[in-house]
Amino acid sequence: MSGNTNTDIWLAGAVAAFTVDLLVYPLDTLKTRLQSPDYKRLYTNAAANTVNRGTLFRGLYQGVGSVIIATLPSSGAFFTTYEASKSLLSSHNPTLDHTPLLPQPIIHAAASSIAELVSCAILTPAEVIKQNAQMVNYHQSSTSSTAVPRQSATMQTLLRFKSSPLSLWRGYTALASRNLPFTALQFPLFEHLKRLLTARRQRMRQQQQRAVGGGEVSGQVPLSLVEHGAITAASAGLAGSVAAWITTPVDVVKTRVMLAAGEEGARRAEQVAREREQGRRANGNGNGERALGERAKDSLKAGKDGLKDALGGTGGQMWKKKTSWEITREVVNENGIKGLFRGGALRSVWTMLGSGLYLGVYESGRIWLARRRGENLNEDQIL
Fold first, then answer.
1. Nearest alpha-carbon partner for 352 in 108, 35, 31, 24
2. Which of 116, 177, 301, 328 has the greatest CB tally within 10 Å of its CB?
3. pTM for the complete prediction?
């Protein structure tokens, strides 16, 4: 990792994340709506058996602010942890007869998994806010007189979790369960494809130099910044699309878990509002101190329930609804096995674009920042 500081890695990861979020976010919104349990009710015309395109394609950037804010630190944390873990595991990899005990794909998978656990802890609240904000127009009360919310989608979503902010971490286990196999599949395949394409491009450059100079070219031929970026983007896009399709069933379950968190948050907010009204009435009857104590206990319990759920527990009554396995069975019962792959093609396409741009910009950013200081990364450091 010499040639790049942690600041380089954070900056490169942040710029890459910001670029991708803005470009592919509408596709992510469509994917969330396709996977929602309310898809047929909200986005299709049952009588004509057609898609309500006006509703489906409205507000495609709802919730983007929360993702950008959280993605910048989470992506920086991911790449810093990934590079450090990969370097540590490689340097401590024992050898047998001059052959590393752990092959490189295993090291890449392990490093990406460690990095993903760190990243998910930062990203989970933003994912919960984002996915509920993507649906927020259709969670309005029936008394609303307009289809356009008065507040932003993100603010409406945040109000649901006002009484239990720790519940924003509901879905950490679901997010990690999706992202761990995704990164474990993507990064070894990405690193392998990148090595193949880099070697192929270098051979082509050597042949071109021999044709021009008429002599033998020894050693590796350095590639340009554009060539590195293009190779990284192509490798990441192909690897990401394959990994995205394979992990779509887990993504469907994750989406429903996080949307359920928003529904529960809304019900909790309504419950707190009722309790406050009861407290005001009790205060008028001389029971204000007791009512305040009861509300404090309820708030503490809600916080504990949210934390239990974030850590994978099921003790909180607030979240005693459906486990991931129950949600999986529900999806299969509703739409068969194909229901677990709803939105899979769209997810593969936007992951191909997103991963290609994300890692392409990240890798190019690392090289550019190193060269800006007058340093160069050799091919082994880049790969």
1. 24
2. 116
3. 0.71
